[in-house]
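We read letters as residues; the fold follows as tokens. A sample entry reads:
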Amino acid sequence: MLKILEDLVILARERKSNPVEGSYTNKLLEDKSLAKEKVLEEINELIDAVEQDSNKIHEAADVLYHLIMYLEKNGIKIEEVMEELKSRKK
């Protein structure tokens, strides 16, 4: 299950190293403003979906995808985020 998230991180890192023309992932990785805008938009869409009890899974997937791209764009390694979460474990 978590392999899919790992695959998204690998995709982001590969696209940073080897951009693909016309790739939506590359657009997010190249445009900090767009990446930020999409994270905010997708979080709001998830909140709306939860409140309306519809399309929650789709919107949650969008949030995770866009958040990973935003983190990678800003040099925030998911490994460091996981370590932070692990350090909070009680």
Q: What stands out?
A: Residues 2-88 form a domain with the Helix Hairpins fold (CATH 1.10.287.1080). The chain has a mean pLDDT of 96. The longest helix spans residues 32-52. The helical segments are 2-17, 24-30, 32-52, 56-73, 78-88.
